[in-house]
Amino acid sequence: MTHFQPYFRHATLREKGRRQAIRGPAYMFNEKGTSLTAEEEHFLDSAEYGNIPVVRKMLEESKTLNFNCVDYMGQNALQLAVGNEHLEVTELLLKKENLARVGDALLLAISKGYVRIVEAILNHPAFAQGQRLTLSPLEQELRDDDFYAYDEDGTRFSHDITPIILAAHCQEYEIVHILLLKGARIERPHDYFCKCNECMEKQRKDSFSHSRSRMNAYKGLASAAYLSLSSEDPVLTALELSNELARLANIETEFKVTHHCAFFLGLRVFRWGSKTDHCHSPVNKCLELNIFVAHPNCQQQLLTMWYENLSGLRQQSIAVKFLAVFGVSIGLPFLAIAYWIAPCSKVQTPDGLFTGIFTQGLD
C-alpha cells in the first residue's frame, strides 16, 4: 500500500474535482462510494481517465488490489475504461483472470459503437464458446455470478438484451458483422399462442418482461443492419416480418399505444413549438395523462386486471374467446340465482375458469 503513496499524492485537483462533480450529492448517501479503499479509488480513477502506467503498475505489483471493485455508480474499472474509450486500459484489464462484468462491458462498447474495443473484448477467453453471445443476462444469470451485473445499479441495459440484439438496435453494421462471424444470431420468438413449457413459464412469472423480450427480438430482426447482413434475400425477409408484426400488433398491445402517444406528442411540438410551450394548457395536461396511462407498465397492469382469474384466456384464439363469452351469457342467469340462494358456497370448475369472475361481477 505504501508503495503507491506517491501516486496518491500526485493525483491532480482537476481530476478530483471533476469526479466529485460527476458524483453529485448522492455520493454522500451511497454506501458503495464510502466502502472503497484509497488504493481502489485511485485505481478506478486511473482506469476512468486512461492513466495506463498507473493501471499497469497497480495490476502487476499490488497484492491487495481488488480489480473488480465498483464505484458509487456500481461500475467497475473495465466498465469505466470502456465507457471512456480507453482501449489500452481495457486490454490490460482483460488479461486478468476472474475479471467480472465482461458481458456488461461488451454491451457498453456496442452501445457506443467502439468497434476496436468490441473486438478486444470478444478475444477474451470467456467468448471462446459462441454460446456467450446468444444468451441474455437473464439467461446467463443461472450459469455465472459475475459475467453480468444482475442488479439495477450495475448495468444500464435490459436483462433480455443480447449483444447481437443491441448491435442491431444501434444499427452498428460493422459490429453486427463481427458478431455474425462469431456465430451470434437473433432467435425468432415463438408464436404468441405457443404452449411450450418455456413460454408458459415466462408468461406465468412475468408476462410484461416476456412481451418486452419478444419486442426487443423483433426490433433486432427488423433492423436494417441485421436484415442486410444475415439474410440472403433481405427484401423477402422484411416483407415476411412486416406481415408477422402487423398481426402481432393487434395481439400484444402493451407497447402499441405508447407509439401513438409519442406520435401525437411529435405533432403537438411541430405545431405549437417546443415541449416547454403551453406547459399549463389543458391539452398538455391531458397529453401527459395519456402518456402515463399508455406506458407499457400501465397497459400491462390494466390487462392483468381485465383478465383477472382468466389469465389463460388472453392467449386463446378468437373462437375460444367467443365461446367463453357465449357460455358466460347463457350461464349468467343461473349462476346469479345460485349466488342469491347460496352466496358463500363454492363451485369446483376446471382451473377455476369462471367462478372468480362471476362472483366479482355479482358483488
TrEMBL record:
Keyword Transmembrane assigned = yes
Biological process according to GO: regulation of cytosolic calcium ion concentration; single fertilization
Organism listed in the record: Serinus canaria (Island canary)
- Output this protein's name: Transient receptor potential cation channel subfamily C member 7
Any Pfam family: Ank_2
> In Gene Ontology terms, what is one molecular function of this protein?
store-operated calcium channel activity
Where exactly are the transmembrane stretches of this chain? 322-342
Q: Which PANTHER family match?
A: SHORT TRANSIENT RECEPTOR POTENTIAL CHANNEL 7 (PTHR10117:SF9), TRANSIENT RECEPTOR POTENTIAL CHANNEL (PTHR10117)
Could you state one GO cellular component term attached to this entry? Answer: plasma membrane
InterPro entries named among the record's database cross-references: Ankyrin_rpt, Ankyrin_rpt-contain_sf, TRP_dom, TRPC_channel
Q: Does the keyword Glycoprotein apply?
A: no
User: Which keywords does the record carry?
Assistant: Ion channel, Ion transport, Membrane, Repeat, Transmembrane, Transmembrane helix, Transport
The UniProt record lists the Transient receptor ion channel domain at: 194-256
